[in-house]
Amino acid sequence: MVVKGEESDKILELFLKIGLDERTARNTIANNKVTSNLTSVIHEAALADGCDRTIGNLLYTVATKYPANALKHRPKLLEYVVSSKIKTPAQLEASFSFLSNVASEDYKQKEFEEACGVGVEVSLEELTQTVNEIFEDNKAAILERRYRMNVGELLGSIRKKHPWADPKIAKQLVDAKMYELLGERTETDDEKPSKKKEKKEKPAKVESKADVVDTPAQPSEEELNPFSIFPAAEDNIKVHTEVFFSNGSVLRCCNTRERLDNHLKVTGGRVFTRFPPEPNGYLHIGHAKAMFVDFGLAKERGGCCYLRYDDTNPEAEKKEYITHIEEIVQWMGWEPFKITYTSDYFQDLYELAVELIRRGHAYVDHQTPEEIKEYREKKMNSPWRDRPIAESLKLFDDMKRGLIEEGKATLRMKQDMQSDNFNMYDLIAYRIKFTPHPHAGDKWCIYPSYDYAHCIVDSLENITHSLCTLEFETRRASYYWLLHVLDLYQPYVWEYSRLNVTNTVMSKRKLNYIVSNKYVDGWDDPRLMTLAGLRRRGVTSTAINYFVRGIGITRSDCSMIRMDRLEYHIREELNKTAPRVLAVLHPLKVVITNLESRSVLDLDAKKWPDAQADDSSAFYKVPFSNVVYIERSDFRMKDSKDYYGLAPGKSALLRYAFPIKCTDVILADDKETVLEIRAEYDPSKKSKPKGVLHWVAEPSAGSEPLKVEVRLFDKLFNSENPAELDDWLADLNPNSKVVVPAAYAVPSLRNSAIGATFQFERLGYFTVDKDSTEEKLVFNRTVTLKDPYGKAGK
């Protein structure tokens, strides 16, 4: 339930008192888990009346990153924060690492303080001396690269020598030293470094300065290797999770030495992960992050990653989805170690369920779904919870043999109905479904639940790191409880934040709804954040993976990533790979009166901005005739000083061709609509107009240019977070798809293959859509250009 009304206002006031800015505070309130954690932390620290912003930021970090297995020690840590004995992010991160390792065990105060740098003061003189030494060591590189020098490298060197120094002071000293050594920043410092001529396949950037603003900050050491946060496989003997029961007992989750040794013998000490999608829909960009985490960790550690279909619900799964998932995983650049199905283990899961009953940890229940919900809300035991083991064994066998009607019985795990964690309220392990299974056929009429099957299959496949998103964190207790009572190997579980992108929905239920009800044109509609939709739009897997890597693997789940950030990576990639061509979306006819009507000149146009004159492959031919078409928006009847397009009596340069001057305008009967422009061209190119226009010409006298359809896509929803709206469908953007049926393009595009991507100069990046035919090409706009080159390119 989302916090609303008066309670929300009180919490907002509380968060503002600790120095959070209003936007961060409101975003935090939108996340129930972080709100609860932060409120608890503030009260534990006795700072409900407020504190300075520095301490407030540290409290926020404690609320979002504190290790769950060491909650016992959190009040003591907060004493260190409030007293400013721990006052930097580096000290706080060190404390998290230390406390995560000790979990709920007692520790020596001296060891803790040494590990966190408590009492270590780095004087301004010491820090200044270190900065001077590092600048001296790197002087040659700094003088050569000037303000393009990676300041992150310099700060990293300072951190290595003084890990507990105030990073803000260190940054101020570095900035001052840069100014002292280099003086004022010049225009040259802001220029992009030129590309080497021999690297023709990587053309120079043509993005605008606005793109530079969007460039992510220099990466930290952790960002350079985002997988460094995960422990080694051989360390999976340490306690990193504790499950607290209502009777006061505590389950300290860890493997025995013997069990871990047996696991390492099977795996050879390698990392084993799994990417476990449910085949009930198409994968979206959130799954791209999951793939990056699961496949990426295995690849970085020289290990293996399964592609495992979580196919426990036969009613929702389709062969279409299974085929799609496998194809998309490969398209994203990942290669599974093995492809498996949870259904491959149905027999093992059944036998373990029988063993669970025998051990007194499961029972057959006859409550309806409504009754189960009611009893869970009231923390009441089922009337059948304490039935004899032999009775549950017989009934479970009857369930398996199809002797009990669907909905009349379930197998439930006997967990802890009085727990503070609702995911310990006797979760369902098996339910009856008389539905054939897409992979297992009609052998089974009982199917395991996710909560029962997931952890067991992780164990059976010897997964070392079971990685999932934060909404599964409360299931960790059930995960480890089940493996513990069955005496199975326990993987290391770690949750990370979901990937949420603005102006879209990521819920499979909502995606399925708008696809099924034809609000969009299928699962691969280019407006969707499905990976099939992004691919059809022209987004590359490389751009998606760079985007995901740039976000990082964090546990902060209150962030909404702006679409601009994804678009930055798309432009970066397509700028290197998409050749430039000329196209006009809304053509306006220009007749060049001083060029013969049957005269056609073949001109050279660049595929890449840095094309070398002696490299013929970097050019393509464009016809230039006495009839050309320019963009309708590039002509005005009234000129102005800040306008660089064409106007009566004014000249503009046709890209790769000649300057033209407007000499006459043909208007429609309404005396407003421009039908045609008459112009003269300057074959000597002596005139130097400031404006540069893209254009397409008739390839021969009286012959229409290549006509193409262009689809212009925009954000699917108007609001940044439509999922939180009550009437989210009303937020759909009616202009998210605009079709231009009769655009013109240069002849060289005629035989373009489906999926080929180009930069239409001054317009954006466009990809050939699968709806294209021999008679007509269809292009999807992948992304716009931030700033058309206007007067810059000639």
UniProtKB/TrEMBL annotation:
Pfam families named in the record: tRNA-synt_1c, tRNA-synt_1c_C, tRNA-synt_1c_C2, tRNA_synt_1c_R1, tRNA_synt_1c_R2
What protein am I looking at? glutamine--tRNA ligase
User: Where is each Glutamyl/glutaminyl-tRNA synthetase class Ib anti-codon binding domain found?
Assistant: 578-682
Residue ranges annotated for the tRNA synthetases class I (E and Q) anti-codon binding domain, each copy included: 692-769
Can the keyword ATP-binding be found in this entry's annotation?
Answer: yes
Region of interest (Disordered), ranges: 184-224
Q: Which residues form the Glutamyl/glutaminyl-tRNA synthetase class Ib catalytic domain?
A: 271-575
